[in-house]
Amino acid sequence: MTYIPISPKERDAMLKTVGVKSLDDLFEAIPAKHRFPKLDLPPALTEMEAAAHLADMASSNENVREHLISFLGAGAYHHYVPSVVDHMLRRGEFFTAYTPYQPEISQGTLQAIFEYQSLMTNLTGMEVSNASHYDGATATAEAVNLAFAQFRGKRKKVVMSPTVHPQYREVIRTYSQGMGIEEAGDNSNVDLEAGPESLMALVDEQTMLVVVQYPDFFGRIYDYTKLIDDAHAKGALVCIVANPTALLMLKTPASMGADIVVGEAQPFGIPLWYGGPYLGFFTTKKSYVHKMAGRLIGETVDARGQRSYVLTLTAREQHIKRERATSNICTNQGLLALCASVYMSTLGKTGLQQVANLCYQKAHYAASELSKIDGFGLCFSEPFFHEFVLCCPKPASEVNQYLLDNGILGGYDLGKDYPSLANYLLVAVTEMNSKDEIDTLVEILKEME
Amino acid sequence: MATIVEPTIFELSSPGRLGVTMPASDVPEVALPPKDLLRSELPLPELAEVDVVRHYTKLSKFNYSVDDGFYPLGSCTMKYNPKINEDTCRLPGYLFTHPLQPVETVQGNLALMFELQDWLKEISGFAGVTLQPAAGAHGEFTGVLMMAAYHKLRGDTKRTKMLIPDAAHGTNPASVGMLGYSVVTIPSDSRGNVDLKALEAACDGTVVGMMLTNPNTLGMFDENIEKVIALVHKCGGLMYGDGANLNALLGIVRPGDLGFDVMHFNLHKTFSVPHGGGGPGSGPVGVSQHLVDFLPSPLVGIIEEGDDDTAPLYGFISPKNSIGRMKAFHGHFGGGLVRAYTYIAMHGPDGLKAISQYAVLNANYLQARLRDTYHIPYDRICMHEFVMEGQFAGSDIRALDIAKRLMDYKFHPPTNYFPLIVHEALMIEPTETENKDTLDRFADALIKIAEEAKTQPDLVKNAPSTTPFGRMDEVKAARELVLCCWLPENYEEMV
Fold first, then answer.
1. Within 13 Å of residue B51, how many CA atoms lie on the same side as its CB?
2. Which of A291, B23, B268, B403 counts the most CB atoms within 10 A of its CB?
3. Residues in A touching B333 (Cβ below 8 Å)
4. Are A281 and A369 found together in one domain?
5. What CATH number should be reported for the domain holding residue A174?
6. Is B469's Cβ below 8 Å from some Cβ in A?
7. Do A355 and B22 touch (CB under 8 A)?
8. Do A230 and A271 fall within a single domain?
9. Is B414 inside a domain boundary?
10. Which of A242, A241, A284 is nearest to A259 (CA)?
11. 10-residue mean pLDDT series, chain B (495 residues)
């Protein structure tokens, strides 16, 4: 079916007004030999057939609500989403609007994003938040771009902790290949005992940015204050990639002195959705606002004296600055920023603290019980939030396969990214995991041969 | 003090109010981390659920959307977003699958992605497609990275110039800037085509390629497209197609057949993924055979062939000379790919062609109705959009005023002041999902505004007057830079 609301009679009247005989006559500028190709695509489905076909395909997946008990995180987390969130998101006024270029008729989107910016600055403790990026990885790559612009290309070295999400580091590598950026820090031979200060050995007068993760990819919580002080002494900026759920409980990156705080806000009301779309948040200090990419909403008044909101500092952006723009970014993740805002508002301060506390308590229960199993143990003694590394008696890939055979999505096999960590399993626990599920995981692992 | 029409959620907060709460913990309690690792306060709003619902419902009513009415924003393809897409993308099998699940457990997702890659290849005439890029601009960046990687692998290091027509989207030069290339602007000729002489003069051994939107931002299909592409290829450059305007070409012509080497799709324009108030988009990229090995990693492929009884096993594959990963995980799967898949599946080949036929008919119909009232600088059969001048001889009414006045007639304005090569540009893209009555009412409103410009210019200059908000003080916003708010109790210490 199509969604074209024009009858044959209306079509003919319109063709007459245009002055052509048929629809095909509108396309004479197209080279004749390539005009009107026959597309080899399946025949059209009706809505009823499409709904059934998509449901059929979707049901051939094993999902973490109906089929699998999941302890998989590593950058995407299964959390409870209050019903209100999707009800608000499904309002056509929000999801079928464009970027708010016409503020008189876009105050809904504009105020919602202004509030999102406010929620993120209050969460991270930073002074400014933009209207969001594609995801946590690209937000981190934009932090590198900010630093590059801040030093006007005079410093070209990025020091990345090997315990920043491996995919984020890959994206930074892809993004920066045209800028002559040198990267330091690798995971081929990661030293698990080395604390964050060990990164300072790589930081020098050429370093524009140090990137660390909080909690790190292995789940460990470090206070980065000293690292940040030392990096600042060398003139470098520091970016912290933070998990927003952990920030509900932990000391803010701002209080450690971070210059840029980015991360993946998927845990705030966005479904797992097989990896996207998610929500990259980006916060920084006010002094860097002109170097920051992405959309930005500011408060103002309208001609009637009403408080209102507009896209501001647009002179940084591609449609004005063209090749000298801070980035080519056009879109943000507007609808998902709304999603995170509704999530945070609906749970509110108390509900959010409950979520954080449940994640923490359940993860610690799981860690404690798992480490009692013969042959298993916790790899680290550092404090953790809702994710930790379990050392297994055999390769994590085999442990995961065994768990999957028993209906459990185990953790993330760290051997995939860190060759020396083949027996290490990264386990995530959220409020969605009941004590029964955790006990089941423990019982099944006890029986593993 | 400015009047507050709707307080912020921070202003609505009241300490001790509860919204959705969580169950009690079912595990033995352990101590929290040491105090010096904890935050001292969490300055976030406290509201009841009903407060939240009323707040966002009220905000939503300040928006104008496609569901509200006509939204002829040129270059943005604001077509109707079918409601069935909202249901299919929320099927539990999609909502609740984790991006790092073993491929054996997500064959439904991978089959959908594999099929969508194939469909986009067929629609565009390209040999390979990546679904990873998150938006059009992200796709563009992906495409330019591949062009750079192609030349680099061939040891062709002298190429540092990108040719971009003066009518191009701003993202084109910005994407090029991200690689440190320089931009050479190519003018348009009097018919809105690429100026062939200027192009020929710019083509040499330092050209990375050309980025061309076709139909261009004037809504014109370049009448010399094959010559343009031949000139770029002849000097060793690659041809990039900006797919922003693909809504004019479905079943009409395939960019790959014309000789384009790489093109991004905007699933949020052409394939009905809703714009979401500014995102998320989805910007897959198609490439011709000689760029297939450079596609971002990973792609969805068949890792074990099937037979009559068993389906193939889908998984991830990494192209030989891949530029790398563009984002975490696999692209905008749920919100982008599932909706676009649903849309293409429901249209089939004939339905897709009808989309473009009617998108082009609607644009030409509006152009015909407005031709006598507004100056159309490049006046010929247009594709899915056209550009007219929003100014009148002897009047100081500008395109901006006309745009704002249209709001009083309950229409979203067209894109204005773009493309830059037309004075006081109003760029109108009606899309195929508007009926004749709507187009007539819109044309009537524009004709009426032209008359008002003469008889009641102040009415037009002070528009809009019937919307919930009037014109904004944008200078104040940029000067004062109030970019966030706080809880009332924290306000004084924060400001």
1. 21
2. B268
3. 273-277
4. no
5. 3.40.640.10
6. yes
7. yes
8. yes
9. no
10. A284
11. 95 97 98 96 97 98 98 96 97 98 98 98 98 95 96 95 90 85 94 95 97 94 97 98 95 98 97 94 97 96 93 96 96 96 98 98 98 96 97 95 98 94 96 98 98 96 96 95 91 68
What is the reported pLDDT for A326? 66
Q: Which residues of B touch A254 (CB under 8 A)?
A: none
Q: Please report where in the chains the tokens 């439904």 appear, as a residue.
A: B108
pLDDT at residue A317 in the model = 64
Q: How many domains does chain B have?
A: 1
- ∠ CA B65-A328-A166, nearest 5°, is 105
Query: Does B99 sit within 8 Å of A107, measured CB to CB?
Result: no
Inter-chain Cβ pairs, chain A and chain B, closer than 8 A:
705
B6, B93, B433 member nearest A3 (Cβ): B433
Q: Which contiguous run of DSSP H or E holds residue B258?
A: helix B255-258
Could you tell me the CATH number of the domain that includes residue A352? 3.90.1150.10
Which residues touch B462 (CB under 8 Å, ≥6 apart)? A303
Q: What's the burial of A29, exposed, middle or buried (CB within 10 Å: 0-12/13-18/19+)?
A: buried
Q: For an interface test with A, give the residue of B40, B97, B429 to mutate (most A CBs within 10 A).
A: B97
Residue B455: exposed, middle, or buried by beta-carbon count in 10 A (0-12, 13-18, 19+)? exposed
User: CB B37 to CB A289 under 8 A?
Assistant: no
- Structural domain range at position B257: 85-346
Model pLDDT, residue B175: 85
A357 contacts in chain B (CB < 8 Å): 25
In a domain, A6, yes or no: no
Domain extent, residue A426, equals 69-81+348-446
Interchain CB distance below 8 Å, B49 and A84: yes
B54-112 confidence digits (pLDDT tens): 999 999 999 999 999 999 999 999 999 999 999 999 999 999 999 999 999 999 999 99
A141: CB partners within 8 A, 6+ apart: A168, A171, A172, A174, A175, A176
- The verdict on residue A50 lying in a domain is no
Residues 200-229 of B with CB under 8 A from A: 220-223, 225-226
Q: How far is B308 from chain A (nearest CA, A)?
A: 18
> Is-contact B285 B142, C-beta < 8 A?
yes
Contact A134 B275 (CB under 8 A): no
Give the pLDDT confidence score for residue A319 in this predicted structure.
64
Q: Both A262 and A400 in a single domain?
A: no
Contact across the interface for A328 and B137, Cβ inside 8 Å: yes
| B190 CB burial (10 A radius; 0-12, 13-18, 19+) | exposed
Quick check: is A48 in a domain? no
What's the domain count of chain A?
2
DSSP one-letter code for A250: B
Q: Within the 332-391 window of chain B, which residues sit less than 8 Å (CB to CB) from chain A?
A: 332-336, 338, 341-342, 344-355, 357-358, 360-362, 364-365, 367-369, 381
Q: Complex ipTM above 0.90?
A: yes
Domain finish residue from A319, A342, A365: A342
End position of a domain, from candidates A307, A342, A377: A342
Q: Strands B238-243 and B262-265, how do they pair?
A: parallel
Instruction: Give the residue from B163, B264, B329 with the most A CB atoms within 10 Å of its CB, the best one to mutate.
Output: B329
Q: What is the mean pLDDT of each run of 10 residues along chain A (449 residues)?
A: 94 98 97 97 98 98 97 98 98 96 96 98 97 96 94 92 95 88 71 85 95 97 97 98 98 98 98 97 96 94 97 76 70 92 98 98 98 96 97 98 98 94 97 98 95
CATH number at residue B271: 3.40.640.10
A227 within domain boundaries? yes
